[in-house]
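Q: Could you fold this chain for me?
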Amino acid sequence: MKNNGIIPKKRRRLRVSHVLIILFLAGAGFFVYYRLSLKSRLRARIDAIAAAGYPVTCAELDKWYSIPENVDNAAYTIIDAFSYYKLWDKDKSKSLPIVGQAELPPRTEPLPAEMKILIAEYIADNNEALELLHEGAAIEHCRYPIDLSAGFETKLPPLSEIRKAVFLLKLEAVLHAENGDGESAVRSAKSSFGIARSLAKESIVISQLVRVACQSFAVTTIEYCINRIELKDEQLVELIECVHNSERISDISCAFVGERCNGISFFKAPESVNPDLINGIPFRPVLELFEAAGLVDADAIIYLDIMEEYIKSVRFPLHKRLDAVKAVDAKLRSKSKIHILLHSLMPALSRITTIDLRNIAQLRTARVALAIERYRLAAVKLPDALTDLVPAYLDSVPADPFDSNELRYRKLEPGFVVYSIGEDLSDDGGKERKRHGKRSEESKNWDVTFIVAG
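A: Sure. Below is the predicted structure, expressed as structure tokens.
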């Protein structure tokens, strides 16, 4: 009887041990399967990107950013111009507009005599730099000497100097317009667009944002000049072609492709990236734990899926892009905060999309305004509607990139405004954005405008 009582106990202990071992082996097997599955899914996504013709490594990205062989490279001439740029000290330059702290007078008022003299002196001091900028801006192809294979540690092109170059060109255009020299003013405006074009193929987000800023500044240069001086028809045609070409080369997607390559590089070896370059990246021991648990690969898969949706959104019709990126944003926000790497690495691509659309709207309003000036020059009156410009001055009335309707046009007393409703999708009657002063509720409502007050 005693033996009969002992034997079952021993069997029960063996069975529990077996169960624990089986559970452990099953758990280990499941974890190995899970990790291999993650690796396989991640590899499949990267292979699909490569099959679509896109770079997937930073070394491939560096080769992807290329210009044709045996052509002049605008970058070297533009960079050479920077070495001749003579910046005044702060005390002397603060009385200058654009490059200093002074403001240009309203569009209908002439330059103060003292300001005009100061601008002329500054332009004379920078004559050599300006001539090289004009030369570089006229060269079609550009590839700045940067090494994109360095990933997040890539040394950026001279973006600050590029912005300063466009500021200098606007200052030159202001002086030419004030002197009544339309031909030279047009040259300065066109060169501003040429400097912006030098960044068109840069697969870096900040470079594309600077390109957009330079194009925007070039449009304001045209707006200033056209309010100061009557241009000839052939000069208006030159500017229309220049503005239209600027829209054609405006493609923010190359920056998204570059961002994705950097992301892939990071997820392959997150511990090798300087944590100071990316906010929110955990310390190395935590990263190693993430890698061991498969969280790095899991985040990488979500990251690539979301980046793919952002890149696809750029192929949508313009007026559908905002809704598309907002949907992707919502998907990103829905991801748990445990995906630390995902949330740390993902840039504000929806905001960049909005800025890009606003830039396209600005380019289109400028093109239409220049066409109106051609019409007025020929008919000695303003058109009653934008359709009056078709087909003699425009193939068709450009669509507002924010709602797909035709750009708006309104006669003023005197002059006119061409405008887009902007990202708030509210038609504010061509209300100009206030660029200075305190922000108020009223200043939040504005349209993307091009105004000719005369």
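A (continued): The radius of gyration is 29 Å.
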